[in-house]
Design brief:
single chain, about 425 residues, TIM Barrel, Immunoglobulin-like, three-stranded antiparallel beta sheet, globular
Amino acid sequence: LTNAEGNNTLSGVFAAYPKEMRQGGHNMLQSRVRERESYIAQVNAPRTFPWRVAIITTTDKELADSDMTYKLASSSRVPDISWIKPGKVAWDWWNDWNIDGVDFVSGINNNTYKYYIDFAATNGIEYVILDEGWAVNLQADLMQVVKEIDMKELVDYAAKKNVGIILWAGYYAFNRDMEKVCRHYSQLGVKGFKVDFMDRDDQEMVEFVYRAADVCAKYHLILDLHGMYKPAGLNRTYPNVLNVEGVFGLEQMKWSSASIDQVKYDVTIPFIRQVAGPLDYTQGAMRNAARGSYYPCHSEPMSQGTRCRQLAAYVVFYSPFNMLCDTPSNYMREAESLAFIATVPTVWNESITLDGKQGEYIVTARRHGNTWYIGGLTNWEARDITVDLSFLKGKRSSATLFRDGANAHRIGHDYKKETLNLDKENG
C-alpha cells in the first residue's frame, strides 16, 4: 500500500480552524477556506476531547470485522428511531437520467422521475433520489424548484406507491437555510437529504455535520453525507445518518482514466476505510468492463471488473442506504441481476469476514433473519477460495450462486447463476 507520492509512510494532519471562508468550488456549492488560524479548535473549558483509536489485529480479516469505531461513539441523541428506514435507492445522476423505450425525453422532469418511481415500486426499492439539477439555483436557494419539476406531485405520486423521495443538496445552500429547508420539505413529505460538497474536516465542518444530523432528526429526515470526510461513529449518535461517502466510489468511473485500478481498490477499502463505518460506494453497474476494456464515459458509464463483482459489493460493502447506480432500463434488461440487487438487505443481524487479505481478496458473510448472504471480491487475479460454512444452522441448506462466467475475463458481464444443495453430513 502506497500513498500519493509512491511511498508507504503516512502522517496525520488536523486541519486548522478556518479564519476566512468564501463561497466557491464546483458550481459555487462549497465554502472554501481562504485563510486558517494557527490553532485547530475553539473550545470553552472545561471540556472533554475526542477519542483516538488504533485498531491492531493479527490477521487482515479480523481488521475487516472491527466495529470499534461504532462502539466508541456517543450513544444516540435521537429518542425515537422508529421512523428511520434504511433501504435501497434508485439513483439518477450516475446513469445520466438515461432511460429508453419511452415516449418522452428523459432528463430532470416529472415524467422521468415517475418512471424511476414506478421502477422502484415494482421492485420493492424504498427510495428514489432527485440528485443535482432539481433546484433552480443550486448554490443559493433550495426553495426554488426548476419548472420541469412539480415537487408536490412527485412526492404524492411516490407516497401512493410506498416510495420515499430523497433530495440532493449542495453544502453551501443547505447550511445557509438548513432549518427552513428541512421544515419545508419534511412537511411536503420528502424523506431525507443527500448533502454534498462539504470536502473538509476542520472543526467548523464537523460542527455543521452534527448540526445537520440534529436538524434532520428533528424533522424526521434521513441523511446521506456525500463529499464527506471519513465517518467516526456519527451513525450511532444520530441513527438517521444512514450513509457516508468518504470513498473513491463507483461515481469516479464516469471520468477516471484507465490507469485507475478500481478493482484493487475495492479489495483494499474493506480493511481500511470501511473499518471507520458505512460507505456510500454506489455500486450496481450493468455495463461491466473486463481488464483492458474500460474507458471513462460520463453518459453511459461502466464499472471495472465483472458483473458478479457488482453483485458481491452489495454484501461486502456495508451501506444501510444503498444506491442502485444504473438506469432502470439497463436493470430491466438484466432480470436476474435486478432480482438479487432489489432484494438484498441493507442492514444485517450478523456479519463475519470469512477470509481476506488487504489488496488481494475478501469474502464476507452477512445474515439477515434466517438467510445468509456471502460475497467475495478479488483483485484482477482469478482465485479459488475455500471457506468454512459451519456457521450455517441445520444439516441442509440451499444456496443460490452467482459466479463469473467462463469468459468473464474477456466479457465483463458474463456470469452463471446456479442452485446448490449443501449437506453437512455428506460434505
